Amino acid sequence: MKVIDRETNEKGSRSLGDDVMMTSNDSEAIRNDGMETSEAESFSPEKPLDTEELSLRHTKHSFFDSHLKATRADLGKKAIITLIILLLFMFSVFSIYWGSMYERNTRLVNLQFAVILEDDTENNYISNLVNETVHSGNFPRLATWNVFTHEQYLNGEDGDAYEKLETDIYHENYWAGIYVNNTATSQLIAAYQNGDSSFNTTATLLFTIYETGRDLTGISQYVLPTLLRLQEEVTIRTAEAVNRPIVENHISNVTQQEALIESGLLFKQLSFNTIDRRPSSSSVIQAPQQVGLIFMIIITFFQFAFFGPVHGAAAQVLKPSHYLVYRAIFSQVVYLFLSLAYSLITRAFQVDLNKAFSGGLGVYWMCNYLTMAAVGGANENVAIIATAFFPPLMAIWLMTWVILNISATFSPIILCPGVFKITYALPVYNSYSIARVVLFNTWKGNLGKHFGILVAWIVVNNVILPLVLTAAGKKMKKNSPATN
């Protein structure tokens, strides 16, 4: 960087331009890891080196050479301090990720399930079976089962209980629903009485409803296993709780008994008709919905380093105020192109982006742009400060930023310890929530909130940027040999 001489009457004054100019090569400091500054300090002693010290500096020695005793002690001290810093980092930051998974099974009761029993009140063997099952054994610890009759669920409103259940699940009021048809037991009794061997015990009696698109990991790891256990338990109890009372109370003559035995209905298992209203249409969806979000954080960090020489050249010729505007706008333009590439990669692998919006690619692109601008702005601010004050901080920050954003994002936050509610305010979670609307056509009711949080991050990052550039410029100018 060139040092520009000032006129005598300008000496002693400092402008924002001086401070900004000192940050022009901040990205190069990332690659050099601060070595140039440390070397300048260590090789510029206040007093001249004696002959022995000069010899040690320019001659290779055995590690155990007596002349290196002081050097070994100094290296050992620095190594121990560095190791302690890394250990503290691991215990403090890695524990965030581990902690998000700690005792999740004890919080499964935070998952709200709806159980709608529309079976008629006189012959309600199937409804009774389901109701008794969800309140027995371990099931009360696997979820909170909200049991309703037809009247309780509709609460005096006109409408269809099954359709209302689908709507409630779509609006994310419940993670899953169990529905017992209003003629479930009656249909089964009629089939037994007629010896109807073609009767399907799965199609129209019992239903389980959920949406995979609401949470890829949460549904597969916590919701589906509970529904499968419920189905297994219902199947096991069917003979005693349903078949026996039907035979004893509704099969009145020998002809019906013989027809029932010949039909094989007694040996058919009572099971649920499982309906996934927002299924995953492609395994590729897991890429942009999970690890791809981590890639976003990393690529925005890289762009800061890659464009360092460009920023350095601009700092030498632009006025301070113009340079600040340039830095803010330049990053946003870069994020626009990076996010477009990210979106096109997703589309190139045949992921349907038009499930929720006819112009789904555009919505998805804007979602990814706002995400990169939000996480990238934070990356850039921290990287500028780290370059000037403590370069190793950049690696620590990057891992911390990734772990903070993803720890509770890829699973139901309600299953994590309460402190992880902060995830609702982090960029990646809000990006994840917007993307699932685009990719699965899930509920759009919270889109405004999610977009608003991303925009807020961008605004805060850009407000902080001039302050960061000024502080880093002062520090680097102070450390520069040219100013000493």
3D structure, described in words:
There is one protein chain. This protein has 484 residues and is mainly alpha-helical. The protein folds into 2 domains: 104-276, 3-Layer(aba) Sandwich (abc type-2 transporter like fold), CATH 3.40.1710; 283-483, no CATH class. The chain contains 19 helices and 5 strands. Strands 2-1-3-4-5 form a 5-stranded mixed sheet, sandwiched between helices. The relative contact order is 0.13. The model is unreliable at 1-47 (pLDDT under 50).
Keywords:
single chain; 484 residues; mainly alpha; abc type-2 transporter like fold; 2 domains; 5-stranded mixed β-sheet; disordered N terminus; MNNG_permease-like; DNA Polymerase phi
Concise account of the structure shown:
The protein is mainly alpha-helical and 484 residues long. It has two domains: 104-276, 3-Layer(aba) Sandwich (abc type-2 transporter like fold); 283-483, no CATH class. The chain has helices at 16-21, 26-32, 35-42, 51-58, 69-100, 125-134, 139-142, 150-154, 161-170, 184-194, 216-250, 254-263, 286-306, 308-317, 320-348, 360-389, 393-406, 427-440, 447-479; strands spanning 112-117, 144-149, 176-180, 206-210, 273-276.
